[in-house]
C-alpha cells in the first residue's frame, strides 16, 4: 500500500520538461517527413485510390476513403499537423488532428497494416494529454504564461511505457519455436542478404541466424529495463542505435528504425543531456511557477489505456495455438518481423441454381499488395469472399457457394492448405468464424 | 562521473562490436566454400541469364523481325500464295522467339511498356479495319502514333491469318476494297515491329549493368525481379491463356476466341515456348556445354533440394500435360477440354511452388512490394 502511494506520489511529482519537448519535436518532424515520403512515393494512389475494394478492420467497416484530392488534403493536413507538433504550435489542435487523421488513414486499408503505424497512432493519442508544448515551443512565444520548466512525471512515464510495450511484447512474440529453435525467418532473410556491405559475409555462417534470433529476442526483452536504469541507459541507447541501424540496412522496413531510435530519447534526462554537452546544471532548474494539475478522469482513462496495452497483445494465447499460421490475434500485438509467409488463393464459385461455375483470381480485382497480403491472412480471405458474394449477387446470382483454394508457406515450410476447401464462405457471416476452418500446420 | 564512465564504456563496446563484425565478415577462410558461393552463385545466375538467355533472344528477335519485314516487302511487291505462305511461316518463327523473350518483362523494360507495343492481345480488329478503310496516310509514323491494340504481333496475325483459306486472305491484299491500304498497313506494322525489336535490344544493353549488378534482395534486386517475372507469366498462362478460353470467367462456357493467337492456331505453341523459357530460366540451361547456373542451383545451395526436385517434377508434369494435347488448342477445347483443364492444373501446381514455396525459401516476401515497415 505504501509502495503504491509512493509510486503515485512520484508520478505526480515534477520533472524537467526537456525530454518531453525533445520527444515532441523528433516525433513531429519525423512523422511529417514520413507523410511527405508517403505522398512522394505515390502511396496515396496505391493505397487509397487504386483499389476498388478495401479491406476494412472489424468494427470499422464504416471507414471509407475520400476521392483523390480529398485524400491528398487529409494526408497534407496530417503532415502539417505533425509539423505543428514538432514546432509546438497550436499544440492541442495539432495533436488531436494528427491523431484523428493518421488513425483514419490507417483504418481505411488493412492490407497496409504496419506495427509502427499502430505505434504512431498510440503515441499521438498519448500526446494529446500531455503538456509537451510548455517549453521549447512556439506556443510559448505566443503565450508566455504557458511556459513551464517542469511537467508531471507521469507525462513522460506514459510515453516511456508505450515505447517499452513495443520492445517487451515484441520480445514475447519471439518466444516461439520457429524463432528460437529454427532461427526462422532470419535464416531465410540473412541468407538472402549476403550481399550486405561489410557484414554480408557473416550471414553465410549457419550459426549467424541463431545468434541474431536469440540476441534479438533477448534485446527486445531486456532493453526496456536497461533504458529505465540510469546506470545502463548509455549502453541501452547504443544497443538501440546498433540494432535499428542494422535492421534498416538489412531489411526494407522504412521509418520504423528511426521512430524507435528517436523515440527512445524520451529516456534521456535533462541532467544527462547537460552532461553530454558538458553544461553545468543550474541549481534552480526544477523550479516551476505553478505546477500543472491532472484531472482524475485523465488519470483513470490513461490507466485503462495501459491495462489494454498490456493485455491486448497477449489475446492470441486464448484464441489460437499457432498465431503465425492462423493469424488470429496477430495484429496489434507487436509481432514485428517474426515470419516469412507467402500464399496463393483462388475462389471457386458455383451458381446453385444453374450449376454454372467460375474461378476467381484475386489479381483481377485487387492491387498487388492487397492480393499478396490477403493470400495468407484468413480474415482477409473471408472478407474478399464476401465481396465476391456481393458482386455475384448484383449480377443476379442470389444463390451461390464460394469455396477457397488457399495455399500458404510459413517460415520455410512446404506450402500447405490454409483454409478447408469444404467450407462455403457464403455460410460464414462472422469473420471470427473463419478461424474454425483453419487447417493444422504440419512441420 | 559515473555517467561519463558509462559513456566511455558504451563507445568502447560499440567499437569492439564493429571491429569484431568487420574481422569476422572479412574472414573467408572461416566458412565453407558452399556457403561462400551463395553470393557468388547469385551473381553467376544473373550473368548467365543475361549473357546466355536474354541477349541471344534479343538478337534472334531482331533478326527475325528483320526477315519478317523483308518478307512482308516481298509479299507486298508480289502478292501471291507462295509469298503469303513464306510470310506466315516467318511470322510463326518470330512468334516463337518472342514468346520466350516475353518472360523478361522487368526493370526499365517493364517501365517502358515496350512489351505492350510489341505484343498486346487481343488486337482490336475494328480499329485496324477502321484505319485501313479510312483516309489517313498510313506509314510507320502513323503506326507509332496509334494505340498498342492496333499494332504489333497480334495485329499482323489478324491481317495474315484472317481466314482458314489462304486464297481468301490473298484476295484481301489483291482485289478486295482498300487492298492497297491493307498492304501498306501490313508493311508499316512489320517496319514498326523491327524498330521496336531494336529498341528493346538497346534497352537491354543499357540495362545490363543494373541487371547483373543488382544482387540485393530488395524490390529492385534482379533475382527477385526474375522470380516475379516467372510468377507473372505463369499467372498469365493460367488466367488468360487457359482460364478465359475454358470459361473460368463466364460460368464455364468454352470460348475459343479468348485464346491467344487463335487465328493462326498458335495458342499451344505459345504456351510451349513460355514453358520452355520458364524452365530454361529456372535451370539456367540456356546453352549446351557451359556452366549453367539457375534457381535450381541456388535452391540446392541453400539446402532446399526437395523443393528443387518438386519444382523440376512440376515442370515435367506441365510438359507431359502439354504433350497430351495433340491437336491445336482450339480443337482440343472443342473436343476434349479436360486436357486443357489438366494443363491448367499443372501450371497451377507450378505457380504455388514458385510463388509460395520458392519465394518463401529465397526470402522475397519482405521485398516483393516496396513498403514502409512491418
Question: SSE layout and pairings?
Answer:
The complex is a heterodimer of chains A (443) and B (374).
Chain A: H1 2-12, E1 14-16, H2 18-40, H3 43-49, H4 68-87, H5 91-108, H6 115-128, H7 138-142, E2 150-152, H8 153-172, H9 177-181, H10 186-191, H11 207-228, H12 233-250, H13 256-263, H14 270-276, H15 296-311, H16 316-319, H17 323-326, E3 341-351, E4 357-360, H18 368-374, H19 378-394, E5 400-410, E6 416-417
Antiparallel strand pairs in A: 1-2, 3-4, 3-5, 5-6
Helix pairs in contact in A: 2-4, 2-13, 3-4, 4-5, 5-6, 6-8, 8-11, 8-15, 11-12, 12-13
Chain B: H1 2-26, H2 33-77, H3 81-101, H4 107-112, H5 114-118, H6 125-133, H7 140-145, H8 152-160, H9 166-174, H10 179-213, H11 222-246, H12 267-283, H13 295-301, H14 305-323, H15 329-335, H16 337-362
Helix pairs in contact in B: 2-3, 2-10, 2-13, 3-8, 3-12, 8-10, 9-10, 11-12, 11-16, 12-14, 13-14, 14-16, 15-16
Task: Walk me through the structure.
The complex is a heterodimer of chains A (443) and B (374). Chain A is α+β, with helices and mostly antiparallel strands and 443 residues long. Chain A has 2 domains: 13-319, no CATH class; 340-437, no CATH class. Chain A has 19 helices and 6 strands. The model of chain A has no long low-confidence stretch (mean pLDDT 93). Chain B folds into 2 domains: 54-204, Up-down Bundle (A middle domain of Talin 1); 216-374, A middle domain of Talin 1, CATH 1.20.1420.20. Chain B is built from 16 helices and no strands. Chain B has helices spanning 2-26, 33-77, 81-101, 107-112, 114-118, 125-133, 140-145, 152-160, 166-174, 179-213, 222-246, 267-283, 295-301, 305-323, 329-335, 337-362. In chain B, helix 2 (33-77) packs antiparallel against helix 3, helix 2 runs antiparallel to helix 10 (179-213) and helix 12 (267-283) packs antiparallel against helix 14. Chain B is globular and about 85 Å long. The two termini of chain B are 40 Å apart. At the A-B interface, helix 6, helix 10, helix 12, helix 14 and strand 3 of A face helix 1, helix 2, helix 11 and helix 16 of B.
